[in-house]
Amino acid sequence: MSEFIIEFITSWGYVGIFLLMVAENVFPPIPSELIMPFAGYVAADGALNVWGILIAGTLGSLVGTSAWYLAARLLGLERFTRLCNRLGRVATLSEDDIDKADYWFKRHGGIAVLLGRLIPAIRTLISVPAGLAVMPFGMFLGISAVGSLAWTGILTGAGFVLHESYDVVEAWVDPVSTGVVVLAVVLYIWRFITWKPIKDIG
Asked: Where does this polypeptide localize (predicted)?
C-alpha cells in the first residue's frame, strides 16, 4: 500500500496531493495521516519540493473544509439538515458527529476552528457550526489555513524524517499503511450501514 501511495503522489505531483486532501476533507476515503507523510517521503527523495507539498496539502484541506462551511452558511439550518438527510449516508455524516462539532464551536468559537483542524474526528465537521453561525468567511478561512498548515506540516515533517530511516522501518510501514486503509474502509462501510437520518442539528 505504501508503494502505491508513493507512486501515485510521485506521478500526480502537487495536483494529486491537492485532490487527495480535498477528497479527504469532504469524506475520508484515505486519511490525511497517510497522504501527507508519504508526500513528505517523496519530498525527501527529491521528486517534489516540500514547500510545494505544504501549499498543495493546505489548499486541498481548505477547499474541502470550505465546502462544508459554505453549504451550512448558504443553506441554513433547515435546508442543510435536509441535504444531510439526502447525502449523509454517502458521506457517513451522523447527527452525533455534528453535535460534537457544534459543542466544540459553541464552547470555544474561533479557537475551536483552529484546534479542530488538528483533531481527526473534528477536522472537517467544525466547519458546519461555523457556517451555521455565519462566522465571517475571511476569519474562518484564515484560522482554518493556520490549523491546516500546522496539521499538514506535522505529517509532512514526519514523512520527511521517515525517509532517512526507511530501510529500518520498511518492514512495518507497509503493513501499517495497508491496515489503516482497510480500517478506514471497514469503518466507512459500518457507518454507511448504520447511518440514521439527522433530526436536528441546532
From this structure: Cell membrane
pTM of this structure: 0.74
Provide the number of structural domains found in the chain. Answer: 1
199 inside domain: no
In a domain, 47, yes or no: yes
Torsion on CA atoms 28, 32, 35, 36, rounded to nearest 10: 160
DSSP state of 58: H
Helix intervals (H) in the chain: 2-26, 32-44, 50-91, 95-108, 110-116, 127-132, 137-164, 166-194
Instruction: Classify residue 47 by burial, with Cβ atoms within 10 Å: 0-12, 13-18, 19+.
Output: middle
Q: Which grid coordinates are listed for 94?
A: 451522523
Its domain, for residue 143, covers 2-194
**DSSP designation for 197:** -
Name residue 14's amino acid.
Answer: Y
Q: Is 28 left (phi over 0), alpha (psi -120 to 50) or beta?
A: beta
Asked, for residue 75, whether it belongs to a domain, the answer is yes
Examine residue 202 and state whether it is found in any structural domain, yes or no. Answer: no
